[in-house]
């Protein structure tokens, strides 16, 4: 075996063993034909595009679509469901934030003077509003069966979020960690909806879910915000309520409700052994935990802040426990890994007794 062939076989170890057993020799031959003329004296190595293509193929196989092995099919469905659920949350929150931005601009009610039209504050506000609309469009195009368009819009939405952070310099670590709430569903979208995966095709009512849920959410958050500004509100009650009203707190609440529904109806559901939903929620628990850690305070000085810190810790513990339970439930329901095809049995040569010496 030449040095280059050995290195190609090492790269192919990225693929599952069951896939390598069927295609490894064919792929090695194809790679070697494309590298004709190289000898061991040239210290040949696989090219980076070849390594990237093998890594992308490994991801597509492990997150399989229709016709894939049951375990890979379950992982693919889970990652795609995590993308849909995560993007649904962001689209719903973006709808509420968009309505709040429109309400704020209408309440101001004064036209911008010529010097303020292209001001930094105006441009930042406009980019933020466009980011809200992008998240809504990402979910709508995805559930309507256009994952490629959804990927482009999602990357633009991420740029609208992380772009200002890159200009702020140091001190943005908490915001970057919080941004994982946005980044993880986008990564699931890019990885799960590959060319071998079946595109989602849902009704228009599903695409309208962010608006149907975002409008009442905006009304509720606005009412609670007005209540918090009132002098008659009890600070004890508000200290318990406030940690749930931020975007990460709302994500924590949505995750806990979804987990309770998943675990509560799982024993009674006909397809109760399907690991896709608990596995998807277990994946989403990671950014939710990190987002709440980013806002954790341990130096509270007044009673109200100490209560909010205690609620935050309780949220972290609850999400962590739910994530562990969901992971265990999904692991028990996952099909076994596919086994490589067995080698054909070699024909057995019958034993021939030794001939006895002639007398």
From TrEMBL:
Region annotation Disordered: where it falls in the sequence: 340-359
Biased composition regions of type Pro residues, renumbered to the chain: 350-359
Residues annotated as transmembrane: 81-102, 122-143, 150-169, 175-193, 205-229, 241-264, 276-295, 307-326
Keywords carried by this UniProt record: Membrane, Transmembrane, Transmembrane helix
Name listed for the protein in its UniProt record: Acyltransferase
Originating species: Streptosporangium longisporum
